[in-house]
Amino acid sequence: MKSIFTQNKNIVSDDNQSGGKSFFERLARSGPGMSVVFTGSDKKIVFANDAFTEFTGIPEGKLTGRSFSSFLDSFQQRRFDILVNDFDRSDPDFPSFMIFELADSNGVRKSFYVYIAAVNDGDNDGEKMYHLFLLLDQSKWGMPFTSFESRELFLEQFNVEEFGTFEWMFAAKGVYWSPGVYRIYEVSSEKIGLDADYTTSFIHPHDRDRVLKLIADAVKADGNIDVEYRIISGKNNLKQLHCLANIVNDESGKPVKMVGSLRDITTQRTIELNMKDMVDELHRSNKALEEFAYAASHDLQEPLRKITTFSDRLQEKYKSVLIGDGQMYLSRMVASAENMRLLINALLEFSRISQTSVPFEKVGLDAILQDVMNDLEVKIEETGTAIRCTGLPSVEAVAPQMKQLFQNLISNAIKFHKPDMPPIIRIEVGEISDTEIRNFSLQPQKRYHKISVTDNGIGFDSEYANRIFQVFQRLHGRSEYPGSGIGLAICKKILEYHHGVIFAENIPGTGARFTFIIPEKH
Fold it and tell me: What is the pLDDT of residues 288-314, one digit of tens each?
């Protein structure tokens, strides 16, 4: 390697030899970072320092004459050609470094900032040579968008089909794509020499002016770009893209380039649109079912009223005639009519929840609870029920529905008490956990109240925790525990109407807990 330090005066020469090597040669070999000198014509290495030989594990003799491009993959080779071929341009805005990935002696790939400088100008029939200084990239970002200067921008550690990065040099009008962008645009990676006109030609005609204006505004205001737009790919496919980009300025504040990432969100947006259509259709279907339930329940009222009226008259007028089985049949008919009346009324209540004209207003839940306790006073006294409650908050709600909610929950707690134990009902206010916010898709910026109603009753099998909120879902026989089987379904629908949630828990050996979460403001 002595010749490289003697044949060219533009590198260094020193007559004071020590141990066969000049001072400058020893300095170049042992200096910090990895250094390589190569020829401009064929990029063959003429000098590599100790750090580079140690990193590659290739002896000095085998490195000399080997092309530096051989350490790069095909995509990086094209970028390296651009770096070398455009270095000597007079454009001061052209960067003198790029980021490349090289494999060490064990095959482990690492990222380096690669700086280039001219060793000589090639005049006087001398071989034009360049010096590369390779500095290990120490950045370890957890996400690809953490920094637009990080190595992910060029090397894409998240190398997935729908993601890519780009660099747009303003003065040179050159655009550099990562492999991911070639895949997104469905263009052959052999296409090089990209420019701004070629890149923007893919943008859908209806979106092009909007996107170009956003870019121009960002350049003027030194801002960022966060935009969705459509493209028509090289294979004539319509795609929806999400672009995040940042304008990079030089030391004087002049915009020199735009760097950013592209993500193909076509599938995501298609799914979202399909889901929106499905949700809209579900809302229409639910509304139609509610209207049907209301109409059916309302129309059933009149024939049921006649059955009840004539049953009562029959029982009064022919009580002495109807004996034995006749009296039993009549009693069962009257009981069935009463069950039908309760069921129809419950269906009407269920269908009216989302059709109410009562406005949302600030409601004190303490006052609501007191009204419910007054209405259930007789039942509370008969069963010896004890209701223990901490202070309840005020919320924006439909007051009659809040009363219905508490009445259904407390009535259930009383109904399903243990035969040998008076009911004890605890109503408490608790804190909402982060897990509940995630699981129930609550809005973090909103304030919610979490209220639980816990009893010491018979409880339920945990496998029915979700099913008990379904319409007509009964876990016990009607003769044992009378009711319509709609009470908890009404509770759930009331909470949904208030953009809240309700869930149930069985407490083995203790009872059941029903918890609802409701926003403070509508």
Answer: 766 766 666 667 777 877 888 888 888
